[in-house]
Amino acid sequence: MPPSPPTAAVPTTAAPVTHYENFPVASLLCPPRLRPPITAIYAFARTADDIADEGGAAPAERLADLAAYRAELAAVAAGAAPGPRWAAVFGPLQVQLRAHGLPVPLLDDLLSAFVQDVEKTRDASGYATRAELLDYCRRSANPVGRLLLHLYGVQDSAALAQSDAICSALQLINFWQDLSVDIPRGRHYLTDADCAAHGVDRAALEALRPTPATTRLLADNAQWARTLMQSGAPLVYRLPGRAGWELRLVVQGGLRILDKIDALQGANLCRRPRLGPLDWLRMLARAMAM
């Protein structure tokens, strides 16, 4: 589900997390004044993720709950008191909406991506082109970066474009590391156009056995994500103090996962790459060298 970047691509957090492993919740590098809004945004996204992805609810029930959750967002943004069902989420979020003027359309974009994921999983449908997949990333991942930039007071078009590149890259990297989990669940993020270009059909992917053709397909998509990440990386120089260091670690975490994917030579189709202690040291060294 959106928009989790690769596992372990974020610095130590003050609270345990699962789906949104790399959302910088109350990070040790996060300025204390920004921990309440970041935590409120995280709780909002995490709860929506649970609605869309956890438990045994049927797709129709998930979609109905997401519609109700979306309506609750609109209501509290307009000043209504939070309802009882999600008061623990929308109470703190409403406070932060008022305190920081958080852009509500970005939060709504996240929910539209959750809805799309439920619909595509229900229908076992995929994405036709990279442009279509990037539109999903625009709503599933990019809002997180834009919300954080809003909190840091960085709003120029160049910074927003670089943030979008980083967030989309992280979303893609998450897809490429989770193929062995997503494909059996009916989630297909390798586009039809890319599969056709490499002579790979869905049955070959669902077998979860690397072939020369699937290996070339996965390497091509990993390089796509790497190029996106590198295009956004200069943003680290725009963020002040600890925020810049946090972003350096996020960028280097994503790139390190791509190193692991490359080393697997197509076996990420059946095995999830993971970061170990030595990888963290390498990420820290690379972050310091940026």
Automatic annotation (TrEMBL):
Q: Which NCBIfam families match?
A: HpnC (TIGR03464)
What is the scientific name of the source organism? Answer: Paenacidovorax monticola
- Spell out the InterPro entries in the cross-references: HSQ_synthase_HpnC, Isoprenoid_synthase_dom_sf, Squ/phyt_synthse, Trans_IPPS_bact-type
* Protein name in the entry: Squalene synthase HpnC
Q: Which keywords does UniProt give here?
A: Transferase
Q: Which Pfam families match?
A: SQS_PSY
Q: Name one GO molecular function term.
A: geranylgeranyl diphosphate synthase activity
EC number(s) stated in the UniProt entry for this protein: 2.5.1.21
